[in-house]
């Protein structure tokens, strides 16, 4: 038996992978500890979506090794840029090899090295067949697919996760039912792109949502990011599914640019007009829709006019939140070979977009002041007090509340990132 700590980076999908590895290690008799200081072996479950994230993880691996820990690296980084992984690590596992984590630990204890980073075409791992060891909390992540159907010119994640592999609806349903039996109140449906779920197995996300909402119990579903080019294919059906009260009225729909030529260069197979069509259709049915979108600034070829179109789109659509990313070239991608914009210009555009999106978010959140809303209480927040979410997944900070309970609150204040309120029932 050995003490192991798993350090997760990146998306909810990656966190679920970490919980699967934790279960396999636990069943093999190893002890999962709460801090890296307690551990003999640290598993760094990495992310490689952005260059700054990659540099941070590379430094962290070196830091752990220098402190005397044995380190196993898993996740997307081994696929995207293995050259930045310190050669002293004990094992390197790709995203399709997480089921070999116990073997990696055994190798590490013997002083041997295991490298298993297969191409996604060569290893067909169904992760819903793996066990899970999840912390006792309010929400539970259910992966519904891995990989995607897009070919974005800037994205390295698809090099790791591969082409879409949707998990069978019956397996997804069984995990949701299990989570509800365990007392979880919030189900996160996670994938690289939930919008294309089922396209490879003759179904779609709307049908899956209908099956999940038919499950008995008081719980809520948070649907992960979905790309516009897929959503528009079954838009009416998806909106009908969203009408169920068990689904948070939350939509993460990345647009990435407000300029159609930049979208074409990005390999995003939709137009700004199609993105707006989806948003308008959702808002017609759900006036309180909590819309999140993503914008990449400084993409190769982004002129001042193209950037201004992105600003105009954000001002026109007024999303509740905009995730602003500075473009950074990723290894193995087409866009990395193109002429890059100056770093100072990319930073300046990022600052401009951030100021706009914060003002829009604040203006939206102020309109909630005085309203009474139903919330699900998550528990103690990062900065004290109690964190809860509304039924359109806006975070609201409360002075008190019981974790895992639904409650009615009155909104007393607002910031650009969260609401302030108190329980009234």
From TrEMBL:
Catalysed reactions listed for this entry: N(6)-L-threonylcarbamoyladenosine(37) in tRNA + (sulfur carrier)-SH + AH2 + 2 S-adenosyl-L-methionine = 2-methylsulfanyl-N(6)-L-threonylcarbamoyladenosine(37) in tRNA + (sulfur carrier)-H + 5'-deoxyadenosine + L-methionine + A + S-adenosyl-L-homocysteine + 2 H(+)
Cofactor(s) the protein needs: [4Fe-4S] cluster
Family: Belongs to the methylthiotransferase family. CDKAL1 subfamily.
Source organism of this protein record: Pyrococcus kukulkanii
Cited SMART domains: Elp3 (SM00729)
Domain TRAM: 366-425
Keywords: 4Fe-4S, Iron, Iron-sulfur, Metal-binding, S-adenosyl-L-methionine, Transferase, tRNA processing
EC number(s) per entry: 2.8.4.5
Enzyme class: transferase
Gene3D superfamilies for this protein: Methylthiotransferase, N-terminal domain (3.40.50.12160), tm_1862 like domain (3.80.30.20)
Record-given protein name: tRNA-t(6)A37 methylthiotransferase
């Amino acid at each position: 038996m050995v003490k192991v700590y798993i350090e997760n980076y990146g998306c909810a999908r990656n966190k679920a992978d970490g919980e699967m590895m934790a279960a396999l290690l636990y069943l093999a008799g190893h002890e999962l500890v709460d801090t890296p200081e307690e551990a003999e072996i640290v598993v760094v479950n990495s992310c490689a979506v952005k260059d700054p994230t990659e540099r941070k993880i590379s430094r962290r691996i070196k830091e752990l090794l220098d402190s005397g820990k044995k380190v196993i690296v898993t996740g997307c980084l081994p696929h995207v840029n293995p050259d930045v992984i310190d050669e002293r690590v004990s094992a390197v596992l790709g995203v399709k090899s997480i089921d070999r984590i116990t073997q990696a630990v055994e190798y590490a204890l013997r002083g041997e090295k295991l490298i298993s980073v297969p191409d996604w075409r060569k290893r067909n791992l169904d992760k819903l067949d793996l066990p899970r060891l999840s912390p006792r909390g309010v929400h539970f992540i259910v992966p519904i697919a891995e990989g995607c159907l897009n070919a974005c010119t800037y994205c390295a994640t698809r090099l790791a996760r591969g082409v879409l592999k949707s998990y069978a609806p019956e397996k997804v349903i069984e995990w949701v039912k299990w989570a509800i039996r365990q007392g979880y109140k919030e189900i996160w449906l996670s994938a690289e792109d939930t919008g294309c779920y089922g396209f490879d197995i003759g179904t779609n996300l709307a049908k899956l949502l209908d099956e999940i909402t038919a499950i008995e119990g008081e719980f809520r579903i948070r649907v992960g990011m979905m790309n516009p080019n897929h959503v528009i294919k079954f838009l009416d059906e998806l909106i009908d599914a969203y009408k169920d009260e068990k689904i948070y009225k939350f939509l993460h729909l990345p647009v990435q640019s407000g300029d159609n030529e930049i979208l074409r260069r990005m390999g995003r197979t939709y137009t700004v007009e199609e993105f707006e069509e989806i948003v308008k259709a959702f808002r017609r049915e759900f006036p309180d829709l909590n819309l999140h979108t993503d914008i990449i600034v400084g993409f190769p070829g982004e002129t001042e006019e193209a950037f201004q179109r992105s600003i105009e789109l954000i001002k026109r659509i007024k999303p509740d939140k905009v995730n602003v990313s500075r473009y950074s070239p990723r290894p193995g991608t087409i866009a990395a070979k193109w002429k890059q914009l100056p770093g100072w210009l990319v930073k300046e555009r990022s600052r401009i977009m951030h100021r706009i999106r914060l003002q829009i978010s604040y203006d939206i959140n102020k309109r909630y002041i005085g309203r009474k809303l139903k919330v699900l209480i998550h528990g103690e927040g990062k900065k004290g007090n109690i964190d809860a979410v509304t039924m359109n997944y806006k975070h609201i900070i409360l002075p008190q509340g019981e974790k895992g309970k639904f409650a009615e609150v009155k909104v007393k204040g607002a910031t650009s990132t969260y609401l302030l309120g108190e329980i009234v029932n």
